[in-house]
Amino acid sequence: MHEKAPVLQASDRERIGTRYCKRYRDAGQLPAVLYGHGQAPIPILLESRDTLAHIHKGEKVFRMNFAGAKGGKHKDDGQTVLLKDLQFDYLGSTIVHADFARVDLSERVRTRVPIHLVGEAKGLKQAGAILMHPTAELEIECMVSELPDFIEVDIADLDVGHSIAAAAVKLPSDSMKLITDSHAICAQIVIQLEVEVAEATTATGEAAEPEVITAKKPAEGEEGAKDAKAGAKDAKPAGDKKK
Questions:
Q1: What is d(CA 24, CA 28) in angstroms, rounded to the nearest whole number?
Q2: Contact 98/51 with Cβ under 8 angstroms?
Q3: Which of 74, 5, 4 is nearest to 45 (CA)?
Q4: Contacts 24+ apart (CB under 8 A), 161-168
Q5: In terms of Cα–Cα distance, which of 112, 100, 135 is closest to 58?
Q6: CA dist 176 to 83, 124, 141, 208, 215, Å?
Q7: Biggest CA pair distance of the chain
Q8: Beta bridge partners of 177
Q9: How far apart are CA 131 and CA 193, in angstroms?
Q10: What is the pLDDT of residues 95-126, one digit of tens each?
């Protein structure tokens, strides 16, 4: 929970556009935007190293402090904000931009929270068994003050052929509401052979059919010879006309 949110050091961003954003990133700053609470969105800059360290740890709720505000204290100084979105480079590995929304600790918000699988599934003791984790995070609705860093899912009793759906995951607080599809699979144990067969079927679009080898195949050139004879039998001489 977020009794004490990390502090992000921010400043107003005077220039926008791809060219300027690259310059800011090269200078150790992360371009971002702050919006919400009926106020116009404002482009901002964050200290890249500390901000990314908090984000990679899974932090979502922050307090934002502004430095160098013109005309005294910045209106958003000390504002509680929620990380809403991240943009990555073309490789999908480096964060290049972030979106933050102004929030109050008492208001309800929707956000995605990562799932942490805990325990050793008994089904993994069977030969060929593997653990599938199709849904890695849950979208929930909760108060900002109750927003968890992650949600634990106990898989100790999970056996081969069984799965844990999102609806079966116990949320940390009764006031939280699950938004993710209740049928989404969070954890599942299958035999590896089943996975390989399923992948092969998906790749071809249909299951492969065995070749029938009991019927006699025509010898090489036999089919062509038959066709040639049939063509010669049906053909008429060019000069053969009825008088």
A1: 7
A2: yes
A3: 74
A4: 161/123, 161/189, 161/190, 162/123, 162/188, 162/189, 163/187, 163/188, 163/189, 164/188, 166/135, 166/138
A5: 112
A6: 18, 32, 6, 47, 66
A7: 115
A8: 141
A9: 13
A10: 999 999 999 888 899 999 999 999 999 999 98
With CA atoms as reference, report the closest residue to 116 among 59, 167, 155, 163.
155
- Whose structure tokens read 């653990």? 131
- What was the pLDDT predicted at 47? 92
pLDDT reported for residue 77? 72
Strands 108-118 and 61-66: unpaired
Domains with residue ranges and CATH for the chain: 7-103 (2.40.240.10), 109-203 (2.170.120.20)
238, two tokens: 């060019």
The C-alpha angle with vertex 235 and arms to 227 and 218, in degrees rounded to 5, equals 5
* Residue type, position 9, single letter: Q
pLDDT, tens digit, 9 for 90 and up, residues 186-243: 999 999 875 566 666 666 665 544 444 444 444 444 444 445 444 444 444 444 444 4
Please state, in angstroms and rounded to a whole number, the distance separating the CA atoms of residues 240 and 91. 75
- Alpha helices for the chain (secondary structure H): 18-26, 48-56, 192-204, 222-234
Report the DSSP beta bridge partners of residue 115: 151
